[in-house]
Amino acid sequence: MSTDFNGTWNIISNDNFESYMQALDIDFATRKVANLLSPQKIIEQKGDSFIIKTISTFRNYEVQFTVGEEFEENTKGLDNRKCQSLVTWDNNKLVCVQKGEKKDRGWTHWIEGDKLYLELNCENQVCKQVYKKVPPA
Ligand code: VL7
Description:
Blueprint: E1 7-15, H1 17-23, H2 28-34, E2 40-46, E3 49-55, E4 61-66, E5 71-74, E6 82-90, E7 93-99, E8 106-112, E9 115-122, E10 125-133
Antiparallel strand pairs: 1-2, 1-10, 2-3, 3-4, 5-6, 6-7, 7-8, 8-9, 9-10
The protein binds 1,3-dihydroxypropan-2-yl (9Z,12Z)-octadeca-9,12-dienoate (VL7).
Family: Belongs to the calycin superfamily. Fatty-acid binding protein (FABP) family.
GO molecular function: lipid binding
Protein name: Cytosolic fatty-acid binding proteins domain-containing protein
């Protein structure tokens, strides 16, 4: 049995997001707006099939994948690049490698208690985010 990521999650901390965005060449004005956001993750998981929605008042981003199956990711509305992405399990962590123009790009998700953790990597930068589970209605 792998970890269950299903649910709605609200961000409670966002460390080094600015440097991560700089590593992705996000322009100044967009970074200023993005830094003020409190994004929400909505995760729909069925076994190894995932839909991860990142929702904010400024932009939304959605990615769909199956663990172990490489796919072409277009980071539309973010840095607008194409990556060959692959998500795998590393024990109870969900690890994505985003192969493309940027070196060492990817992310890792895991859960501890009612918290969802996310580390976003690009080049030599790591952004650490923590989300808290929104209790089901
Ligand atoms: C996705 C943003 C900065 C552009 C807008 C900011 C809008 C809300 O890849 C991500 O998550 C994975 C793992 O959960 C699933 O896709 C992070 C948001 C990172 C990077 C780029 C700033 C413009 C933020 C969409």
